[in-house]
Give the backbone structure.
Amino acid sequence: MTSYIDVAVIGAGISGISAASYLRKKCPNKNFTIFEKRDSIGGTWDLFKYPGIRSDSDMFTLGFSFKPWRERKAIADGPSIMKYLKETVNENNLEQNIEYNKSLVKAEWSSDEALWKLTIFDSSSDKNIIISCKFLFMCSGYYSYENGYTPEFKGIENFQGSIIHPQKWTDKIDYKNKDVVVIGSGATAVTLVPEIAKDANSVTMLQRSPTYIVAYPDQDKISNFLKAIFPSQVSYALTRFKNVLFQQWIYRACRNSPERMKKELLKRINEYLPEDEIKKNFTPSYNPWEQRMCLVPNGDFFNSIKENKASVVTDKIRNFTSNSILLESGEKIDADLIVTATGLNLKLLGGIELVVDGKKTDTSQTMTYKSMMFSDVPNFISTFGYINASWTLKADLTSQYACRLINMMDKKNYQYCVPRIPHDVEEDKDWLASEFSSGYIQRAKHLFPKQGNKAPWRNYQNYIKDWFDIKYKNLRDPSMQFYSNK
């Protein structure tokens, strides 16, 4: 017998917790269930266990708009973020709505019934269950939880030490007094290096090319001052707004004046490292914000290099040997442990099979509406965060829009809504792959939906614009069609 719920939320990470919290507050007459593939909430923050894991955005924007971040540190470690998420679940009484060990395999929409039929695999019983729902809210993130990305390295099978991708890190991995090589130059690598350097014999970050790395205080002095004079919700809102404006300003400045911003960003590293080191290992070949910048709290990464606890080598790998990595330059780096901090494998919508009225839907052939819905896919919302700002900023807006849409449809007695591409909207360039050159995006650009040449089909990566549009703009625009009972 098929069970029914009003809203099915897929995933219990930041996005899913945001969606459920808003549904609880804004749609109290709707029943919903969060289906979580794993046996715990938290998503990314529960999955990754590598040393030093922390946010690479400030917690005033990575946190939820409705729950103040009360810790003094704005750049938080993984356990602190998990504590915050668990508090949110408890405060909003969400635990009773979470079904663990259940992953969505297939979603089939019927316009005749105005329902989604969901095939959900229950790993605890090794069986499929069938659920029907009115709205499907995808909060499954953007990457594969099964495996991270590791390039094909020549001779990797010859290495006699340990090789680990950060996504598979466990507390059994021992790096104390060992020679460690961290391959990569992104946020994970710059987090790992100073933490491992505390106990390892040596740590080398081996990068193919440099990344923009910015040192920033782990505490926000203005926020801590505001906390002392205002109630927590007020001080939090003010700090959040300040940080959003700063993020947007930095992004626009990098886009509009890349050479000036490049000089400014590199100049800041002079506080820690000499000019020749910066030129060799910390001067990227691309402009700022063509890839996501790396944030290092209090300059800990630079300090570990300055204090000779870690080093950076910029070169290409020729091959692995039994106890080292041989580089194209002829240099050899000895290693007992190799960490492949080489990125993620992107996976859109958790890899589900999507069917609309009997026809399989390839989302890469659809167009994204308000960057949260897909053309010709009814009653379907998906959270995808910002590339140039904290993920949660867009997750919160998406949740608010979903609740506003559901409530309006109830009031007007609409059964379902479908974004349809008007005749005057043309397909535009691939916003994600054309504007961001990161390897993990380029490898998966064929998976992403297209965008149009005008709103609401264009992704502007602008929180302020999205905030006004999603909170106040008329839900009934020429691109959205609504259908009542037949």
